[in-house]
Amino acid sequence: MNTDGAKPTRKEKDLVTCLSKEQFKYFKQRCNHWVKMFGLTDWRIYYEFVEVEGAFANCGRNSSERIATIKLNPEWKSSREPTREAIDRTALHEVCHILLSRFHWMGECRFLMDNELDDESEAVIHRLEVAILGSE
């Protein structure tokens, strides 16, 4: 706790910032940017601006159907300000869950075909190559 009489920093407070609909719109735009960047356009992605227990956001996924729902918590509970950069980082984080969701799903499967893990690894690597270097 600050004892020198200075204004408390954001970290010293347990602050909750209510996000605006404009910030949610920006979050969706950034998610869509990352979806395109990683070539995940074969997924149907839905967005919700609802309370998320213990997180800024979360991403529910059905990997076999390639459907995801990304939720952004309207209450930003953090020492970090909800800047555009912080919102963009949160969007990237949630889209990365989609990028890696098939690995997660495969890990939960009891049995895999011999080549499934290697094939998915190659697919993710290809998506990253295109995202970082562009298509050939």
CATH architecture group name = 2-Layer Sandwich
Strand content: 15-25%
Give the termini distance in whole angstroms: 55 Å
N-to-C SSE series?
EHEEEEHHH
Average pLDDT figure: 86
> Poorly predicted ranges (pLDDT <50, ≥5 residues)?
none
Give the class from helix and strand content and strand pairing.
Answer: alpha+beta
Describe the global form: globular
Adjacency order of strands in the biggest sheet = 2-4-3
Measured on Cα atoms, how large is the radius of gyration?
18 Å
Structure description:
The chain has 136 residues and is α+β, with helices and mostly antiparallel strands. The protein has one domain (12-133): Zincin-like (2-Layer Sandwich), CATH 3.30.2010. The chain has helices spanning 21-37, 84-99, 101-108, 116-133, and strands at residues 16-18, 44-49, 57-62, 67-72, 75-77. Strands 2-4-3 form a three-stranded mixed β-sheet. Strands 1-5 form a two-stranded antiparallel sheet. Strand 3 and strand 4 (67-72) form a beta hairpin. Helix 1 (21-37) crosses helix 2. The N and C termini lie far apart (55 Å). The mean pLDDT is 86.
Key attributes of the depicted protein:
4 helices; 43% helix; Zincin-like; 136 residues; 18% strand; alpha+beta; 3-stranded mixed β-sheet; two-stranded antiparallel sheet
Short characterization:
The chain is an alpha+beta fold.
